[in-house]
Records
---
Amino acid sequence: MSPSRILVLNSGSSSVKYQLIDMADRSRLAAGLAERIGEETSTVTHQPLAAGGERRTRTGRLADHGAALGAVAEELAADGLGLDSPELAAIGHRVVHGGLRLTEPTVVDDAVLEEIERLVPVAPLHNPANLTGIRTAQRLRPDLPQVAVFDTAFHSTMPEHAARYAIDTETADAHRVRRYGFHGTSHAYVSRKAAELLGKDPGEVNLIVLHLGNGASASAVRGGRCEDTSMGLTPLEGLVMGTRSGDIDPAVVFHLKRVAGMDADAVDELLNKRSGLLGLCGDNDMREIRRRIDAGDRAAALAFDIYIHRLKKYIGAYYAVLGRVDAVVFTAGVGENAAPVREAAVAGLAELGLAVDGELNTAAGREARLISPGYARVAVAVVPTDEELEIAEQTYALVAPSRAAPTPGGAAPESFST
Ligand SMILES: Nc1ncnc2c1ncn2[C@@H]1O[C@H](COP(=O)(O)OP(=O)(O)O)[C@@H](O)[C@H]1O
Ligand SMILES: CC(=O)OP(=O)(O)O
Ligand SMILES: [Mg+2]
């Protein structure tokens, strides 16, 4: 038997999500999450899935992503699924920024590593973690193909009128200043699953996909291709996020420099790490914000309203971009779990054919499902994303093309949403 297992690493700024998937039958053997990397107390939550084993959590300090991956490797080894396994076919890595050159799943070599490194300034929270993930995996298994799957890839089909900023062309081209878009692996996967849910061919549906996690982005997808997306040169543009501002007047940056003496790095840090929901009310977790709203907290209520207002603006904008919309699709941690966000985002949009059914919206469930009433002209759906499965599919297709499935399948695990 040739090896058929793929380990997927999704390294974020302070976390690593991972899954081990056997591509022979798409079964999950293990999944887990190392979080609060670099803080005083980090945790690794590991779930063996194959033998129905118990979820384990261990705490301790993980100084950096290298240490986190060491801990992940130990957890896998404890279940007999160590990185030394001959059944491992490849390791698939989520890489956030691929720029203009890296738009396909790619086997990593020195030139690819160099290009990912070159893009660090435009994905400062993500690309360094992705690089550490790849380098650590290379060290642990130098013989295995390491495959990079890029968040930007799905958006590379955006037409120039959506991808370009209205700034001097020479300056823009010299410094590759344009809109790239992110969360593409999720937008692609969710678009396909939404078409399946609607019983239609992906080529014939127009969708507004709302990926609402800690980072959040919207995209307008026509017939399976991205036509516009809310993130831009970096993952800062667009929606209000957990800690990122999303859209602001760029003059805010110059203003803060002039009146507050903040340099570029200080404003960068403000807009990426101390803004969004966190900046508005002190919490970035939607669960906590809803709890505070229920307790009468006005700052939390205002933060929620600002979040929803921006979301609604993008739904309207992408409705106009697409002309006809078959479904608005919610995904990722907030999109999949926060019924009040879904309800508020489409409230008042009946004229556009949009509505949610209160009971369907609040019903529990982890499956892809419709939450709009039968009469609605435009479907509203919740479709759990599965970036890890999608990365595994693309990795396997690259390293074992004759054995990869033409259409990805498989059910999401119980835990670790995106
Ligand atoms: N039950 C829930 N209700 C509301 N929000 C939730 C719930 N579960 C998770 N979330 C939100 O999802 C976010 C994480 O989403 P996720 O897609 O996992 O983000 P990321 O991949 O960016 O870490 C949390 O910060 C929280 O705001
Ligand atoms: C690109 C991006 O914003 O990713 P995340 O949501 O994982 O932070
Ligand atoms: Mg995510």
---
Amino acid sequence: MPLIRLEQAGVTVPDTGRVILAPTSLTLTEHRVAVIGGNGSGKSTFARLLNGLVLPTTGRVLVDDLDVARHGAAVRRKVAFSFTDPSAQLVMPTCVEDVELSLRRTVRDRATRRAQAVDVLERFGLAGREDQSVHTLSGGQRQLLALAGVLATDPEVLVADEPTTLLDLRNTRSVGELLLGLPQQLVLVTHDLDLAVRCDRGIVVADGAVAFDGPAAAAVDSYVASVAR
Ligand SMILES: Nc1ncnc2c1ncn2[C@@H]1O[C@H](COP(=O)(O)OP(=O)(O)OP(=O)(O)O)[C@@H](O)[C@H]1O
């Protein structure tokens, strides 16, 4: 598991100077880290810092001592990111082609790539859907396919930004179980407090700053209490 470290990493909007995330220092050593907080609090910005999708305007983010601002590609091979809306990630016409696209750099041989993609689909509950159009998948199946594509290359960390927000109860449960059961480190941005509480650590973001950082159950309590005030 790589070591993700924020050293006074913060984000301000260059033109206006508005603070989106105040300078933050922390190290992510736990297997599953939940990031919770209200709408617009800065959770996605925090999550995107972790693999260089957003660069800090102050301080540094390091992954195994690689500065994400200078080694973005190497960092993204270790730290994968999944978006709330799987449409942001699904670009090929069929399920198997979409997973093959993820594997194109790591598996050069076409037949091997196809076989691996078929295996990955099976692991993510999409067996038999190899040639189905991604446009005809249900919302839950689309989210599973997006996660399959992201995890196909076996990254060391998955940062998942609200992966269950668009899903119904059944799919929320199946995607949630899949994510919590991953061997990889998981950084889970979520409004689903039942999922958050099952993580090893909880970070509450409020008004562009870390408001609480500790055991997940205590983080959830702190967030719920802050809403009740
Ligand atoms: N590039 C940017 N320029 C200006 N404002 C931005 C930029 N990126 C984010 N923001 C603002 O910063 C705040 C935090 O955004 P962010 O997406 O991190 O919140 P969030 O906690 O993930 O919210 P949600 O739960 O609604 O997804 C929001 O008010 C957003 O509009």
---
Amino acid sequence: MPSVISNIVSLGAADCNVLLSFFKQYYLVLGAVGSLGYFAHRLWLWPYVFSPLRSVPGPPLGHILFGQSPTIVRSESGIPQREWVKQYGPVIRIVGPVGIERLLFMRPEALHQILVKQWLEHPRPGFLRHILGLVTGYGLLTVTGDDHKHMRKAMNPAFSIPNLMAQTHMYYDSIYGLLEIMKSAIDAEEDPKKGKEFLVYDWMSKVTLDIICETAFGYKADSLHDPHNELAEAYELLLSLQSGPNLARLILWMSVPGVPRLLSSEWGYTHRHWLGKVPFVGPISSLIEAMYRIRRMSASMLRDKMNDSSVATSDTFAKRDIMSLLVRARKADLDKDKSVYAMSDQAMMDQVLTFLGAGHETTATGLSWTLWLLANDPDSQKKLREEVTPIFSENSRPDYRTLKEMSWLDCVVMESLRVLPPVPLTVRTTNKTDHIDGVLVPKGTLITIPIRVVNTWKEVWGEDAEQFNPNRWLNLPKNYHPVFSMLSFITGPHACIGKTMAIMEMKAVLAALITNFEFEPAYAGQVTKPAAAITMKPTDGMPLRVRRI
Ligand code: HEM
């Protein structure tokens, strides 16, 4: 060894020149060999030979470059994972692009560790937070640790039961607007008895947008009657971009350092047309455009609230929308103690935008799938009509408590959210190396939270786990765990803050629709496919035949 070192040290300038010209001549070859070596390591040696996770059961590596991602992106959300769990058991490893590994855990103890006990060590990964920030605003979905604790504490009062009770009446103007539109469209048909085909998802999207605008901002978007409403158009543009391939593009771009900041900056907006011409980036430029328009409108709504003296009052007639509550709470906190944590205008706007982004499409998707399931299960639909009709004939705007007490309505909504959860899966990462369910999980490993797979796990829900059967909520299976057997809103400190609001809103819309209409598949043998995106919205807008009762 010392002789090698002395040989190198003794190299003269001439020898160095010879070496340099050798590298110059062959640098392309050397570069190619190096890259090949790197890819061989990432794509093959790492997952097969070196990875500490190589012995965890799971599907084969899949595509040489992209692993199992093409199968996941092309399939219905959660279905490949469900088949793999059936085949390989409750802990599996899935290899994605360039050998990146993901683990999936099913057992309650593992989910408790990831989502509850060690939630700080298992945050949402950076790329997911950036995507959510870009499409919903930099609110609760994008922060973690102490920032998250502060924000969540400030937001909780807006989602308290008393506040939700006071908000329930806000749903009904939009709901009755929808009923009138549907009734008139059916009556205008040549033979109204035959009913009319509606693209159910589109109408659910409009009614939930109108409701969330009212509850979040106190703003009447009325997208039901005004398809050119600026906010509604911007959200429509945003939703039209949801697809598996677009999501894959976003994940790729958002993983590149600096890109998320660039895309959400003023520069990103000014250069969006130019960005639109770059292959692979096109849809992202439309996304920037949509978010910019949404932000501009919500900033003006916030300004109006700050200047509206009735927002500042604290009596029972004060405005109950979330933004008014936040403006009021901030004022009260600052009046008490000037040094207290108080949200800036920008942070407040981001929060409210997050509620619009997180609460609009999810609820629309949940409602659409519930109507689909009822259209295919006439007995459950009839039973629901028998429960809701007498209540609606007595009071056309049932309050929070009445909606909560309708037991078959509750079974139908819970069962629909179980079999077809609007958010079919989510992702976490690991901040430290630790054991989970007996597997040593290295720091930085991605973890899939398999919402749809857990919700339909035969070990808990029995042989008919994948079937829609609202009756099961009247007699839950013995393996049912109240927290970890149904993850549609996940659990722990990052659980959905809008869970109760979403369930109540779904109940109000559904009960009013079922009292007034009958739903059937649009044609015999109809199948409809959920998108493989962040939410499981139906890809065809979900046509259903609707008749008046
Ligand atoms: C059926 C409707 C809904 C479903 C299925 C749903 C589902 C979920 C899920 C699965 C998460 C966790 C995501 C993750 O950790 O990666 C989540 C988080 C969240 N949801 Fe919902 N959601 C619904 C409606 C709503 C509504 C109506 C709102 C607000 C008005 C809302 C606001 C939020 C917020 C702010 C978070 C982030 C919570 C945190 O990290 O602290 N969601 N939701």
